Amino acid sequence: MVLNKILFLLIGGVLGYGNLTECVDEIKKVILNAPGAFSASPNSYAKMFSYSGKSINQLGRFEDCYSLEKARYMLIELSKSPPLLLSICGPDVCSKSNYYEIINSIINTTVTEESTQLSKFFGLKSSNANQANISYSIIFPESYIHSRFHELNGGAIAMVLITVIIGTISIIGTIIDINIKHEEENIRLDVEQTGIGKDDYLSVPQGESTIINILICFSIIRNMKKLMSVHLDDYHPHLYFFDGIRVITIAWVILGTIGGLYLYDLPLANYMKLEQISKKYYTLPVYTSLLALDVLFWIGGVLYTYFLLNSYSASPKHWLLIYLKHYLEMVPMFIFITFFFWTLSRYMGAGPYWYTGNDAYSDCKDYWYANLFFLSNFIPNGTWSKCLSHGWFLSVEMQFFFFTPILIWIYKKSPGCGWFFIAGLAGLGTILGGVVAHHFDLNVSIYGPHHWAFYNYYNNKPYIRMPPYVLGIATGFIYFTSATNNDDKISSLIIKLMKNTIYRFANLFLGISLWLIIINVQFQVYKHPGDDFSYNEWSLGKTSAYFAFLRILLGISYMMMFTPMVLGYFSGITSVLSSSIWTPFSRLTFSVYLIQAPLADIFMRSLQYPKYFSKTSLFCDWFSMMVICYFFAFIFAVFIDIPVKTFILWIFGKKTTKENYYEIND
């Protein structure tokens, strides 16, 4: 055991001179009293030994050590990603500099069999027989946490006050809503007025007082009813199966978040078996979870296109209002979550590993505005802001939405030109995907070499993620044509082909097969991690080709699978995915996505003992996090997301029929 090796050198007299005398004497007492750890009433020194970790990533007993008189818990951090830690419950007279001197003396002492093995265990690269170079840090977690995470700073106090104000407004709005009786007809906007249908979701108050209407938007009871309401209209019933797909997709995203923490960010008790674990097939959904978001991009392309075509107007004012409405619907929740977790998450966790608890918000001080303007995937310096880092998805989504009305305008003028631009953009995304992968020598594995280049220059960029989105736009063209008999020859041909049973089933089969191939092919790299997890199974040319065609093939697979369902076919599948049980969970997708990574960071980094990576522990943590995320998403949705969207609809819903635009977030 590593601790025994260190103690062997100490008690053997390697150290024990100068200003280290008191520290070393106390450590020797811990060693000499070690057998007493097994007695019925161990003394303080025996408890120190007992509360120390006995091997790499064994975190000992942090809280017990901290509460022990004359003891202090200490970590030796040998690696950050993946974490390699040694924990020692040592005498409180030993300072950080004492430990540095002790460890450096052990490393650089005359080579013995013991010290050689210790150096190898630490992963030292020796330059000669007697000298070794090692990078490590000494950390006193409790001191670090107390100095940074215990007293509320100005930002945290401000966030608490804002939260209290929002809660107070919600309570006032609820009381007013209970006491003011509205006829059902007065709290719904008719389908002819808004285009969203006679649905309780996002229905708006229509009293005579503006202040009362605004407060009622925050009514807790009303917003809970809106969230739980089912679809009552039949305005676009074929699209309701997206509810089920959204929920399944967000579950996949959360699995990837949990698995990523296991593989890269949490101390593992069985880290020595990480290579074997990485080859297991059950880890594939973790590796491929970044592909889950392409499903949401494709769905977004369909919905934006169909509803914007239905609300088309040549008026520039109409399009400016659409841009403004969509921005105002998205930004309040995004910014609130950013500031909420940036300022408060540091106070929500505890434990020996919690000193890493606020690393996820390291960029917020300098680049919080990137989230405000949906540019976090380009700031700073064309890379990627780590301030609520998964927010890049919303930035890409907003950037897609920015150019969508332009495509709609082109399509309205000439459907053939619209399809031409769709093909061109999909092809451009394919080319750029291959070029970027080749230029940065990307690896298929997100844990392999140059993984930061993968995130900074490939994964988070709209021109890389474009193919699935624009192919979703193509499906939107098809659905619009089926509903309106639009003069679109390409869409009409596809609609005609879909009427053929053999063609429909072949389309579904080929779409599913293509998707499964894309998802599984990368496992050929993951199951051969190579030396030091270099994942060098594929050549650069093969890897670049994979990244070039990945997104366009995903978009084609989704188009083949789901276009028949959008047109009303495969009712057996769509009826399951359209079930009302999915609806409230689907409405929480936006909130769940925003909070899942911060919550996972808080709960997973607050561990008292190391994680043990297995499919059982992965499943249990994933399922627990699903429950936790939806619970808190419900709160954020009722108090923030739904009130804001209701308020925006209340403002923008007072337009003429010609200037209407459709609600796309339900």
UniProtKB/TrEMBL annotation:
Keyword entries, A-Z: Membrane, Signal, Transmembrane, Transmembrane helix
N-terminal signal peptide: 1-16
GO-annotated molecular function: acyltransferase activity, transferring groups other than amino-acyl groups
Record field: transmembrane: 156-180, 241-264, 284-307, 327-345, 390-411, 418-440, 466-484, 505-525, 545-570, 623-652
Domain Acyltransferase: 240-637
InterPro entries: Acyl_transf_3_dom, O2_lipid_transport_reg
Keyword Protein transport (UniProt): no
Pfam family, one: Acyl_transf_3
Domain of life of the organism encoding this protein: Eukaryota
Name of this protein: Acyltransferase 3 domain-containing protein
